Amino acid sequence: MSDCTSQAADTGSLLGTRVGGLFGILVVSTIGVFIPLVAAQSQRVTGAFFVVRALAAGVVLATGFVHVLGDAFPILTDPCLNLSTTYPWAMTFATAAVLFTFVLEFCLGKYFRRRAAQLEAFADKPVDAERARQPIDEKAAAQDRRRRMYVTASLTFECGIIFHSIFIGITLGVTSDPDTAKALAVALCLHQACEGMALGATFVKAEYSLLKYAILGIVFVLVTPIGVAIGIGVGSAYQSESVLALGFEGAFDSLSAGILIYNAIADLILPTFSEEEMPQNAWLQAAAMVALFAGAAIMALIGKWA
User: Fold this and answer.
1) Taking Cα atoms as reference points, which of 79, 155, 76 lies closest to residue 111?
2) Among the listed residues 221, 262, 263, the one whose alpha carbon sits nearest the alpha carbon of residue 95
3) What is the pLDDT of residue 124?
4) By the 8 A CB rule, do 255 and 92 touch?
5) 146, 256 in Cβ contact below 8 A?
6) What is the pLDDT of residue 134?
7) Please, is 138 exposed, middle or buried when counting C-beta atoms within 10 Å of its C-beta (0-12, 13-18, 19+)?
8) I need a surface site. Which of 34, 57, 85, 304 has the fewest CB within 10 A?
9) How far is Cα 66 from Cα 306, in angstroms, rounded to an integer?
10) What's residue 137's pLDDT?
11) Rounded Cα distance, 238 and 245, in Å
């Protein structure tokens, strides 16, 4: 990224590849994000769903580190930006995003607890008095806290995915090399399928209604194809080396990386492998550990192209 006067890409000759990639991404994203919903409807696949959650956690962690932060680092040290080429700008933005996400979840958690207390206060008095004489159901209270945690996690997670997916979609839309475009289209299909499963798993744990699940799922499904469509639309007008394009892409990528890394560790890996969530079956625990590493390894491998 050293040619600050690079010419715009010739995108017309690969329109078929890009359009095919766009529809492929639509299909696999839809399948990926709705697999957890289907799996959660059957008690017989509870163990399999636990393993899928572990796989998804590994996917998100590697996506944050390898894909998003890996893309942001060279962009924000590009000489075209006239910034220091040795200072780790991407790491700084990602750190800020991690801290911001923590503060956001902390504040939202307090809000949800306060709101729950207010609803209890407005309940009719005879019911409250009866409840006061009953022991507190600590298991139900803990489950409600986990649900609220996943509500927050799913929303911040989706925001992180949206920021990154727009730009990787645009990348496919403007890539002019035929081999790169084909490899990128395949990699993005795998990328979106795995991220969709991870996101859907958080929707299930947040216990969303079918309508809310569908709305948030459709937003995820459409984001990357919209990015591809934008790339195809701007075509020859897009200059990836412009200061504006580099600045926006680098900043959004590094902020997204921080959000994804935080979500992967705090909202996916730790809760999935907590005593409350893990099944007692030792084979399932071992399978989940393997799936965690496999998810990270798959996304690290895909990082060669996307």
Assistant:
1) 155
2) 262
3) 46
4) no
5) no
6) 53
7) exposed
8) 304
9) 10
10) 61
11) 9
Which stretches of 175-209 are DSSP H helices?
178-205
Task: Give the residue carrying structure tokens 């469509």.
Answer: 229
Terminal Cα distance for the chain, rounded: 17
- Of 50, 56, 39, give the one whose Cα is nearest residue 199: 56
What ranges in the chain are assigned the alpha helix state H?
15-40, 46-62, 70-76, 89-122, 125-132, 138-174, 178-205, 210-234, 243-262, 270-272, 282-302
Phi/psi class of residue 274: alpha, beta or left (left: φ > 0; alpha: ψ in -120 to 50)?
beta
Domain boundaries, the chain: 20-302
Using alpha carbons only, give the angle 137, 269, 217 rounded to the nearest 5 degrees.
Answer: 85
Give residue 272's pLDDT. 83
CB 96 within 8 A of CB 110: no
Q: Taking a C-beta distance cutoff of 8 angstroms, is the pair 56, 256 a contact? A: no
The residue ranges of the chain whose pLDDT is under 50 are 1, 9-11, 124-125, 127, 132
Give the global pTM: 0.69
